[in-house]
Amino acid sequence: MQKMVNKAKILAGGALTAGLMALSTSATAAPVLGAQLYWAGGDITITVQPATAGYVSELKLFSADPDIFLALNTAVGTTVTLDAATIDMGHDIGDELVFGIFVQNTGDTFLMGPGSRNADGLIHAAINDLGGGVLRVGFEDIRGGGDLDYDDNVFDFRGGVRTGTVPEPGSLALVGLALLGAGWASRRRVRTAA
Questions:
Q1: What is the pTM of this model?
Q2: Same domain, yes or no, for 146 and 189?
Q3: Of residues 30, 86, 70, the one with CA closest to residue 155
Q4: At 10, which helix (H) or strand (E)?
Q5: I want to staple 101 with a disulfide (CB 3.0 to 4.6 A). Which of 6, 57, 89, 163 is the partner?
């Protein structure tokens, strides 16, 4: 009888932990500056979102040869699909896809990823994981960083793309709590058996 009660407690604790982890991963995280996108295989769908830019910019895939034009930031609501066959010509699954913007008004180009890729040495893009497989990428379109709000050009990416970001500290804390709970339950089970 005691073993059944212990198993029920362990299952209840596991269900609670799993529920908390699911809840934490569905919440929208803060944008990650300088994050990168990687090809996960398959097509990638990109939708132009409303933004605050005063300039006209072209979203391009710069890691292709030649660069691939995808959309203008002014074409809000436009959806384009970057098909797997096109991506596959120059990339393997797991490769970084270097997206960026070319600002028509100034001639500047700003790439996602570390600031060292850009002429001013600054990060010009941020990724926000909205959940449900949607990654929102916002760009700064002014040399020197502009107002650093990363909403001058905004695009939603879906499908065969993922980020290379590290899990949030909150998620890691929940995993740690789950492991502690499992260890505690195991220790109690050993004591009870003895």
A1: 0.71
A2: no
A3: 70
A4: helix 2-26
A5: 57
Place of tokens 């030649």: 66
- Whole-number average pLDDT of the chain: 82
Q: In the numeric block, which tokens belong to residue 74?
A: 């002014």
Please give the span between the terminal C-alpha atoms of the chain, in angstroms, as a whole number.
Answer: 15
> pLDDT by residue (tens digit) across 76-86?
999 999 999 99
Residues 75 and 139 in one domain: yes
Per-residue pLDDT tens for 120-173? Answer: 999 999 999 999 999 999 999 999 999 999 999 999 999 999 997 444 445 445
From residue 190, give the alpha-carbon distance in Å to each of 3, 5, 6, 7, 194: 11, 14, 11, 13, 6
φ/ψ of residue 140, rounded to 5: -95, 135
- Coil, helix or strand at residue 66: coil
If you compute the radius of gyration of the chain from its CA atoms, what whole number of angstroms results? Answer: 22
